[in-house]
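ugh ok so i messed up the first submission bc i forgot one of the chains. this is the corrected input, ALL of the components this time, i swear. 824 residues overall. if the numbers dont match what u have on ur side tell me asap before i send this to the collaborators (the ones from the other lab, u know who)
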Amino acid sequence: MAIETTLPDRPLFQAANISKSFDGTQALTDVSLTIRCGEVHALMGENGAGKSTLMKILAGLFPADSGDVYLDGRKVVHHSPFQAMQHGIAMIHQELMPILDMTVAENLLLGREPVGRIPGVIDRRVARAEAERMLGLLQLDFPTDRRMRTLSVAQMQMVEIAKALGQNARIVIMDEPTAAISNREIDALFAAIRSMKARGVAVVYITHKMDEVFAIADVVTVLRDGCHVATRPATELNNDTLIELMVGRELRELLPKPCEAGEAIALSVRHLTRAGSFRNISFDLKCGEVLGIAGLMGAGRTEVASAIFGLKLPDSGEIVVHGRPAKIRSAADSMRLGIGMVTEDRKGQGIVPAMSVAHNVTLAALDAYCTGPFIRRKRERAAVDENLRTFAIRTSSRGQPVGELSGGNQQKVVIAKTLLTNPTIILLDEPTRGVDIGAKAEIYTIVARLAQQGRSVILISSELPEIMALCDRVLVMRQGTIAAELAVAKTTQEEILRYAMPV
Amino acid sequence: MPCPSDRAVSLSRLRAWIKQFGILAAIVIIAATLGCAKPTFLTTTNLVNVARQISINGILGVGVTLVLLTGGVDLSLGSVVALTGVIAACFAHPGVYPLCVPLILGIAAGMACGATNGLVITGGVPPFIATLGTMTVARGLAQVISDGRPVSNMSPAMIRLAGDVGGIPVPVIILAAVALAAWTMLTNTRLGRHIYAVGGNENAARASGIDVRRVKMFAYTICGALTGLAGIVLAARINTGQPNAGLAYELDAIAAVVIGGTSLSGGAGGIGGTILGALLMGVINNGLDLLNVSSYYQQIVKGIIIVGAVWLDRRSSRKEG
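and heres the new structure output, hopefully the right one now
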């Protein structure tokens, strides 16, 4: 087999000086990476550090802006996952994409079905033998004619891996493969990884879970803010050194000091629970306070905020707003109580892309510019112009569709829209995601100003430096619960991250 | 201090104008060509005729514009036209009820159909399916009520709804009033703004505190009411309530709206385009009639023009973006 010609320790694959930006946001800067045959290479970093972007470039999902990729010392270019696969690079995505109503065999051979003597007609016998051979590579023994739908997530993952191996993949990239599978299944996955390793196949393993890294990885590369921080043998690292590498510098240069929160309680949440998302969430938010919520993706932070804002209702628990128990069934309800939210999903829930900047800004607060059902255009226009100035929104005109603005300016439009309803409690969910550094600083100033005005802010962020700079207190969420409540002045990013990591 | 972006505003407004002028230019060119080929085309009588011919499609188009703007669709228009026409005709026999009775009942029946659409759709059934159901049910109801036969013997007052006032056809006046009201609603009221927001991004609208269900209910109900009005006008024009009337009217109405630049996925477009779209279709129909093109060929031409107009429109907007 071709695989036998590749020996361990020889560089199989090199990425040199890869850079990539999206809409003016730098996602990767000058990142280099070397992967050797038969090595399990863990890729770590906080959310947004650039891990997935780098892997997607290597797998041909989108091109890099600059930088080169070498395979066996030869420069290669691939423009699609298909071409990457021909070079022996396969990616097992976090969200698996099998065709559920097809059989295991049909999925394994998708796109390269063996054709028999009659042109265009699949030779089922050959197909079945080939599918069985592929499953055999991982010692899997379920029948190839089972429908994908009937498999567990872990089994589907195995099928995907078998598919990659069956096509002679030499590098298999796995994006958080254990996110959706049980402990017992993790053992099977690790066995599969070890068997790949034995064949000389390199595995790139993206994960947040420390214990997995130390259990399976040979080498660890850490990315931060789109830059390469370190590549070390796993044996030279421990929990603490790894977290330190991931967190890195502080964000001090950007920001005003947090001001003193008042004593009055603006929002009080008790035993808030929604099955499958979060449970027993209780906390208080004081007037003039910026309360951070830290945690990994999927920890339930967005879901809690959505429940408070009325976008997705909780199963049980109570919400008390300014001392009064609140019944919140919709965003309209919570807005009436003085709650505003900037959602994490700007394109999905924030902007109306085809609408003008002006109409987006006033969308939530239109009542204030109406007499009866009619909009007072002049008053609306004056308010819009004032907001464009206050928030320094860069647009060619107030009539420009919001969809044409940069990510940072879109975000400022959404923030302006939310604040125009004059909320006393503001929920900001990843307000600086996908936003350039200049707009970030502006958004930080806005947050600080809100607190100075005595309003209360909940800041959900995956960027710990941001939370350290802006918040008084931070709640750390882990797997749907509050794992810790920490005073920012008395904690460190390392401690926060330790609570956030799944146990 | 003048806003620094005023010039840019007028520029983007100009671009929007040009986009609408695209259809207007097409109408003018086609009209001029027809005028040369058939001088009778440009006579006042004929032009008034064109206006009369487009009035029903125009009224339906205005209604379905509201629905398309929310990102929905309404396939029940044609059947509801028949149903409301039959209902109005039943109450329009001479000397029984005053004119307001068939008027109110026809419009109310249309509203009921529209509200049913709205309820079913906000209940989670896709608009295509929901209105397909209403289309079939309404046609059946029209047959049941009329016993499958045209309802004739209509009062002169009712028939006058299809006549002229001071040389202008009443249906044209109705269309003008309806279009003006809908235009004002869309451009100057909160509800209009909300319709665009719901069609442009339903989730963002909801997160902005907009009652999405209410906005959709409104759009479908008003569309139903206008369909009722169109049904009454059609009944008046043909002097009977026909249970088989209005076949495929929904497709003509949707075609006019889309030719007018309203997006099928919602959130962009408006009444001005719809009226121009209806006008373009009317001019072409009338011209082909005058040129003695058989109705078989007319259908072929119409189909090509619908697709061609939308293709050109999408191509030019892609260049802009």
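quick check: The two ends of chain B are 31 Å apart (CA to CA). that seems consistent at least. Residues 6-37 of chain B form the longest helix (32 residues).
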